Amino acid sequence: MADHEPDDATAPAGSGTGEEPPRQAPDDGVPGPAGPASDPAEDETTHPAPGHPDPAAPDLEARDLEADQQDYHELTGALNHRVQQVYNTFYGRVDAAESVFGFGAATSPGLAPGLVEPAEIGRVLAHYLHPDTYDETAGRLQSDHLLVLAGEEGSGRRAGAFAMLRDLLGEDAALRSLSPANSLTHLAEKGSVKPASGYVILDYAGETESDAVQDYNLKKLQDELRRRGSYLVLTASPADRRRLALKGHCVPWTPPGPLPLFEHCADQMYGAAFLGQLPAATLDELRALVAELWRPRDIVRAARQLANGTQAALEGLRDSAKQTVRDWFQKSPAPEDLLPIAALAFAEGLPERTFEELVVLLDDYVRNGDRPAGEPVSDEDAVPVTRPPLRQSRAAWSTRASGIATPVHRGDRCRSERTIVFASPRVRGLVIGELHALYGYELWYPLRRWLNQLALEGGPRVREEVARGVALLARHALPEVEENLLPSWSDGLSSQRLTAAFVLQFMCGDERLAPQALATALGWSKLGNGQLRAITAAMAFAGEAGALYRLEALNCLWGMIVRGQRVAAAARRSLVLLLATAAAEAEAERAEISLRFLRTQLAHTRDLRDRTLALESVLQILEAEGLNPGVPLTAELLQRHPPTARHLGCLWTTVLLSVRRARAVTALVRTLAALQDVPSATGSVRELGEAMRGALDRRQWQGLRANVSVAVRHPDYAIPGTQHLVQVLLGNLRRHGSTSNSLSLQGG
After folding, report:
1. What is the structure's pLDDT at 92?
2. Does residue 665 contact residue 711 with C-beta atoms inside 8 Å?
3. End-to-end CA distance of the chain
4. What is the pTM of this model?
């Protein structure tokens, strides 16, 4: 049974008719809200019909589109590097219980929207201890069906939400995690809340409607939750003032005391008598160090470390790396030592010759105040100085920051080059934290100006490291990053926009910052915030942000394809990259979700102009290359994720039944040619043909047969391997014609 059939059941695919929308939507259950209307005033351009460019379009617009294309080349290269080149070097014993290797962020249960299975909830609550106010808070949720846990990040808000919902719904209940940018208006819509279900929204991003609208939607949602016997728990920071309508449902949340939680964990893991058997002096030191902790996860981790011996647990609690960084800063390092470390925090891993230029530039900004770096000093400002002897600056790294940073050689034997790196990735974050905690305007003002120049003029590798460092800075100074760096970058030149997009992507690697990165990207994408910020948001969604918040990214990008030409082009390229990274990372589920989304949106789009743009977008995805140059994205999907064949077949059929059929046939044959040397591809190609078969009637099949027979005569495709796969594809469709009409590929 086909997922959908074309409206015009009599027109052959090669008949030259116009758009032929499908009869019914796919049955995949992916929601398909309509995209926003275009805003010519904001996007500056209107869409000419795809394939018919406006002859009056200015050269400036063409240059802008070409520049955007170059940005996506750089973005594609960066994503490809992260996907395909992951190097992990280990020295000694490795504890990887909470690690992730490869591309993307470690996903904690509930962080990414979707179903949270009972087993995942059980792992989160394995050593859970109720705080003193738990019973009262859970009782309030039971009566109100809606609750906001307002507590500091790391205070166990998520575990508390899971525990209360599990107590109310049973241990076998699966919970639904919603996006932190989820609108209460959408959730309150009829049919959105399922019976006897639990919902969580972690790090809620707030609403933008007026107080009265929020009050109305909240009351409607609460009534719907009560009627359905379902519950919703949100977690948020106490300082967040955007949820005015929810203030009456906010409950302060504090974790249990560190010592009771530690003893509870130790009793569960090792038995009630374990701690009492330790020497008194050891137990006292252990308790003193644990008492300094406040985050439940750190306390549970300390209890787990007891399995490796008491001494190992004590060393872990003493945190030698953190103490080393603190000791170095307490010595009040001189500028000649401080500035290289500050520069390294935002430019790690570069060749030393490049890094030295950046350090000199930062030193210029510190010395010159408001004067642009490198600008000659006037005679009035000149101060005669005696130049000191040249320092052996490279040799200084052996003693400058022992235990914090060190030079290493990278590259092959012939082209090995020295680079400066931190002792570990964690040390980089610790250094940025100390810089923020100890130094003020006289360091951070020139440092911000330096970062602005690097974002504008630095090479791709420099700007990527700047973005990585700024994402680490956001852990300690998010308002500063949001107010002093990201606004100008997101609306600046192409190099700045790409840097801003990388910042949001790297922020998604931290579960505390990921919701804010999502809210920022969604804010940039809204109509009225300008096309440059929308393009920046699209680039952010092409990477980690899109991998983590899948449906939010897809909805946002799909809404952009009906906007101005530059924004639409960026959105299409980001949709391609989302699928390409899913294919390269063996993320079959993410690839299928994306393709189902495209099918559903295409089926729901009826407006003539919007459907024209939607078909063009889908066709460009079918024509696109993956992360490997020269290899079609569709070929990578069919080879690595055979279940995507069904979705690709439906998309291809819809485009074939339109005026774009010639390009669609070329893309189809090109995909088969790329798979000719892949023995395992036969099954995927056969399934692709099965998916296309149900959507074509006899005349449409004859038109497709004629189109393919012409396409395979091209010298690039007139080879046995491609011909075989074409026969496999079309062999599944022969029921539409007689044996004498079956396609013959002899002689090309």
Report:
1. 38
2. yes
3. 32
4. 0.74
